[in-house]
Amino acid sequence: MKELLRSTDPTVLAFASALLEGEDIDCFQMDVNMSILEGGIGIFPRRLMVREDDYTLAKRAMLDNKIPLGNDI
């Protein structure tokens, strides 16, 4: 798995996940349960992971839809 996106905004992650699903690219959100440690205030970013084989296609889908990658959000 390779990190595609990192964000503290759950709406960006939901949109990105739906977009990838529409492109038939499997993705997985990591660090979802960190809210237990942070008290639900949303300071720890969540990571959206994709298979290494799908990374280039997933990155293109994100950039085509103007979703910043990495720590840009």
Automatic annotation (TrEMBL):
Q: Which Pfam families match?
A: DUF2007 (PF09413)
Residue intervals of the DUF2007 domain? 1-62
Please name the InterPro entries in this protein's record: DUF2007, N-reg_PII-like_a/b
Query: Gene3D superfamilies, from UniProt?
Result: UreE, C-terminal domain
This protein is called what? DUF2007 domain-containing protein
- Species in which this protein is naturally found: Pseudophaeobacter arcticus
